[in-house]
DNA sequence: AAATAATTCAAATGTATATTTGAATTATTC
DNA sequence: GAATAATTCAAATATACATTTGAATTATTT
């Protein structure tokens, strides 16, 4: 009989796994080394032994989480690159939302925290991970905008899409963490909201191609 | 000669002013009483004397900031309530963005922090301040959606709009605080982005009224 | 102006938590 | 299997803060 052996991972790995989850839940400041070690069933000194200090553990934990997320959710959403632009955009939005909705993906939770309370990690994340994805999505948006593809239209449309996605991330996180005395967003259905964002955004982009009908005015 | 007398405000007021600014900048945890007192030119013990403890100062500072914000930016954006729905929506979006862009308005910065790292303050803010505004904006969206005004369409459209606005708040805050080695959003023009959000969102809402053309598909 | 209350102040105390230490244990190499 | 390196451990140390204290000062009342 082949022994499957679900062996207990080594201390370093347990720390990374636990830390990424806890940092995602409570942020850098509010997560204590003592808590991480307790949940990871490791000694209090193991963080300093394996990672030098808390800040470095935070950095490594984020990278660790990022690798897992990316493997589980390819950024193009599985849409081939010769597909029409609207499908490619939809694929990317679905991938983004998939990562946000995946409870094992701590990518966005950590970024969300970072954006509210930046550490030295944020600039690295932005440059190395966020910016490339941003450029790729903006290229698609540019295609969709056609002759209306001014730099500003492209950037703002991108911001509109990302903003909608991040908002879901925040809602989800808030509901999960804070013990709210009521339910704010009655429906927190990731799939339905994802399709809404796609439809809403494609219409928004399409409208930018029109010669500018009265907006805000009648 | 009438003496204008720009007198130094009393300790309590100086603490509230300084605290609301600092909490907005760095959040509850990362702001120390010592820092607040130094900047407010008050003694270290004055917080405990005037506000019992740090948490209560935080609460009072938020209320203080909220009052100022609301006075400076009426929520309806000055649009009369008998104006057409798209204008009323535009008014509310402009008011929202106005508050976000106003450097003396610490309302959103604090909420932003709260959403990432909730304290006991968050539930109160949501119930008392956010929810009423949310209901008002959703009523307008409902009008605009007409026969397509399902509960889900209304909620999701609202989320789309708020998400876009909050995203600007985050961008602005990130650029202001973190020392980024580059400029992410090339244009951080609040007015231009506001008009973009209005146009983008009205088109998104209008699209929901259509029988459902292929979205994401061709 | 004396008496009383409110406020400010510098220093002390308490607490939470990151980090270090050196011995004990386990794994790896020769 | 002895020697060496890697890892774990409980306890000690260090640091950053919030909070308290009681005296000193200022403002208010009578």
TrEMBL record, chains A, B:
Q: Name one GO molecular function term.
A: transcription cis-regulatory region binding
InterPro entries per record: DNA-bd_HTH_TetR-type_CS, Homeodomain-like_sf, HTH-type_TetR-like_transc_reg, HTH_TetR, Tet_transcr_reg_TetR-rel_C_sf, Tscrpt_reg_YbiH_C
Write down the DNA-binding region ranges: 32-51
Residue ranges of the HTH tetR-type domain?
Answer: 9-69
Q: Which Gene3D superfamilies match?
A: Homeodomain-like, Tetracycline Repressor, domain 2
Keywords annotated in UniProt: DNA-binding, Transcription, Transcription regulation
Q: Pfam family example for this protein?
A: TetR_N
The UniProt entry, under PROSITE patterns, shows: HTH_TETR_1, HTH_TETR_2
**Name the UniProt record assigns to this protein:** TetR family transcriptional regulator
Q: Which domain of life is it from?
A: Bacteria
